[in-house]
Amino acid sequence: MFQADWVYHGKPLNLFQTHPDFSIFCSLSMYGEDLRTIQWPELLWLKRSRTNGSFYGRVTDPNFEKSIKTRKPVDFSGRKTCALRARFWLRCVTRMKQSIASKGGAMLVCHGKPEEVLAKLPGGSLVVCQSEPVSPEQTDVEDQVAKALSSHCELWRKWGAMSLYHRKDLPFPLTDGPGSYTELALTLGWEDLWRSPGRTADATRIRPPVAAPEVWPKAVANLELPGIMSDLVLNDERESLKFLGYTAEEIEEDLQEPVLWDLPTGYGPAKGHDALQWANLAKPDGWLRISHYMAVGCISAREILSRAEESVNFNGVAHRLLWRELHRLNAIRWGRRLFWLQGPGRVERPWSWDSAAIEAWKAGRTGVPYIDACMRELKQTGWLAYKGRKTAGFYFVFILGLDWRVGAFHFEDVLMDYDVAMNYGNWVVVAEVDKSSRGAHGFKSVQDLAAWKKEEFEWKLSAEKKNDPSGEYLRKWLPELGKLDAKHIHEPWAMSEESRKTGGCVLGQDYPKPLGGPFRMREEEEEEEERRFHPNDNSGNRYTYKEFIDFAMSKGYDANFGKKCWEEARPVAALQEENEQLRQQLQAPGTPGERTGKGSLEHLMDFFASRYGSL
Fold this sequence. Notes:
Layout: E1 2-3, E2 7-8, E3 11-17, E4 22-28, E5 45-47, E6 55-56, E7 74-75, H1 83-102, E8 106-107, E9 109-111, H2 114-118, E10 126-130, H3 136-149, E11 154-158, H4 181-187, E12 190-192, E13 196-199, E14 228-229, H5 231-234, H6 237-243, H7 248-255, H8 278-281, H9 291-295, H10 301-308, H11 314-334, H12 355-363, H13 369-381, H14 386-399, H15 404-414, H16 420-430, H17 446-467, H18 472-477, H19 497-502, E15 532-533, H20 545-554, H21 559-568, E16 570-571, H22 572-587, H23 592-596, H24 598-612
Parallel strand pairs: 1-4, 3-10, 5-9, 10-11
Antiparallel strand pairs: 1-8, 2-3, 3-4, 4-5, 6-7, 9-14, 12-13, 15-16
């Protein structure tokens, strides 16, 4: 906990920002009512106690009293914060503690539940909370703190600086804002943020960042609170993690390799400079390198925007920050619905909870090279480029058919730049459960769903092969595929058995067989998917499986109706074979065609074409 003995109207003041795992507090005094003088929200820090496993939805609302009591808990077998991410938090907090000490102040770091720690503050204390309304768990913590302080202290909740816009400046209520990126940008006064950063004269204001205090008053003497972590513990990462409840195995696994705390990034400008940096977003490194620092509040969105204003990439920075703002506003509007299996869109469809498939995905052992490389990079570094997150999520949800929340929970556990609104907001979009108008309604099995989405996934894999034709990214994270040539490293299942043996990549032995596969890489011009005629369609048109499903849903039917139509339809190849057999029969000696002449043959073929279409 950061602690300094400031006074507000004669009372000790304690500032905190909630987080379901790490709650931040600070004893401060404010000489005015503008809390924006605190640019960094991590000022007094508590680590909530955590067991080895976490039941989704039962962290701060164990009986679902604020949701739907009939809901059943799902054991996602994670801490919500892995040891690597905890190390990052500890480093940020320790650096802040050192910075405050250098300016004459002091900070206390506590391990425990905020409501239990703050309940021990002296009577008459004023506690100011930098609220985070994007997360129900975080607002639950605020409610619990308010209840704990009600008899002897006062609690204020303030908006803080985690959002780009202050809620009082928004031209719409928080519960009823624009639902799309473009609509939000226009509403806030951005003229065309997809192309330029121009703003209208009456654009919604973005408050400027305010510098952190240069001088801190001396600490309150002899302030004792539960769970204080000593400097001796804080300065030793191994001891800190042990103090926070991590096992020896978790700690050793986390400390065995050095961590690149400054994440990699793509660079510009290049020829024909693109301020939005689309090319860099197609690479594994991504673009900006500060998302993890912004996620924990070391720097605010307003500070980033202000610093980027004169740069050549200002358009791109503003564009990305507004996406973040959209997810934050959506999270506030959706509340607990953001974490429902059916999502905010209340989409009903089948799901799987195959534990073997889940663990294979987490470990990077699915047998799909690009997915495995992404998941191993994530596990080892706490980082994954945006495109990797979305493709790995798509595979998890649609090809494996797994509960999207399990994937989102895993990302929460391991991502150093985890942000509740960005993470869960992106997952509901990928899973197509964010809106009722989207989503695969009406499927009866995850197998049918996978068949419908398989072609789309294959195009995604093909795009990654195009982005990394040599397989450099795959070789970095999948050493067992290192001997494969560039042609096959993206799809080892396409190799001959002899070639796989030579390359040391026997599927099921050296490398897993592809779950949900095999898949094929697609080019712009290639052989079409299987198409079929439906006997009741006199147009002669031929459709793929996906087109049957899409057509059924566009007419208000469910996906199962489209599947039934596909099963009733006749394959083009089968009709071509029947057509050829009919030709041979009609042209054979002694057949009606031979006896009656060419005119009758043409008549029969015209009838066949009118029924099945021209082949």
